[in-house]
Amino acid sequence: MDDKNMESVLEKAAVLVEALPYIQRFNRKIIVVKYGGSAMLDEELKQHVIQDVTLLKLVGFKPIIVHGGGKDISKWVEKSGQTPEFVNGLRKTDANTMEIAEMVLNRVNKSLVSLVQELGVNAIGISGKDGNLLTVKKKLSDGKDIGYVGEISKVNPKIIFDMLEKDFLPIVCPIGLDENFDTYNINADDAACAIAKAVEAEKLAFLTDTSGVCRNPEDESTLISELTISEARLLIEDGTIKGGMIPKMRSCMDAIEEGVGRVHILDGRVAHCLLLEIFTNKGIGTAILNDNADRYYNV
């Protein structure tokens, strides 16, 4: 073997060695992956995400996928002759839009199941309606009724635990029922957080269209690899974290305070971002952790 090939082989070996302590640390631990954004629209990126989650499963993690599908829903709403409406970032969902949303989300759900099973791992796709997984109440936007948009009031994780125990990979679409058994659309971020808290996940990973939290939002070289809850609050107060990142960060902080080990904000547009974040010393996104948690990127 020539020197160039030997160097390549050694680099691959070094990557595996670097991953070893993380595989040991998180063996049999639950990780919830919120899958959305551009990574859902690009077929190559979609393959990479599914490969990442499948590998996590095969090396001993217990992954759960919670997915969105907002852009596909908007596309099909327009095809039906309607114009998608949003109030404060939330989709206004009448009965017809709810029917379209459920159809689209179930279609996305089963396509993800197929991709996972092509890689040799058994997956089951469910919605929050199955097994009373997600019970909701009507969510208002600044006091305004926006239709069938649900706020999660209760999570029954038994169906998730049953699937994990039987070695299946659960894939969840964010639809739930209220106490009258009416169907509601749920924000996928909220669904992922609620499920992660209910199953006491070690990790919750958000695949987004941003690189993570940066000290200078205009400069990705200022990316913050690890961020405590107290540090995050200060960044919200001083305006570093702003806009649509604020509710996402508040959801992350709430999940940490409710017992989730760590929350990761990752750029889903980067191939294999999950593996790079979880199995390398530095990571590529931002990990949010409790104030008293150990920092472990120097494992």
Quick overview of this protein structure:
The protein is of the alpha/beta class.
Account of the protein in words:
With 299 residues, this protein is an alpha/beta fold. It has 9 helices and 14 strands. The chain has helices at 3-25, 43-58, 70-79, 95-118, 158-165, 188-198, 229-237, 245-257, 273-278, and strands spanning 30-35, 62-67, 86-87, 90-91, 123-127, 134-141, 144-155, 169-173, 175-177, 183-186, 203-208, 226-228, 262-267, 286-289. The strands form 3 sheets. It has an 8-stranded mixed sheet with strand order 5-8-2-1-11-13-14-12, sandwiched between helices. A hairpin with a 5-residue loop joins β9 and β10 (183-186). α6 (188-198) packs parallel to α8. The longest helix has 24 residues, at 95-118. It is globular and about 60 Å long.
Silhouette:
globular
What order do the SSEs take from the amino end to the carboxyl end, as H and E?
Answer: HEHEHEEHEEEHEEEHEEHHEHE
Q: CA-to-CA gap between the ends? A: 32 Å
Helix content: 40-55%
Share of residues in strands? 15-25%
Strand order of the largest sheet: 5-8-2-1-11-13-14-12
Fill in the keyword field for this structure:
single chain; 299 residues; alpha/beta; eight-stranded mixed sheet; 24% strand; globular
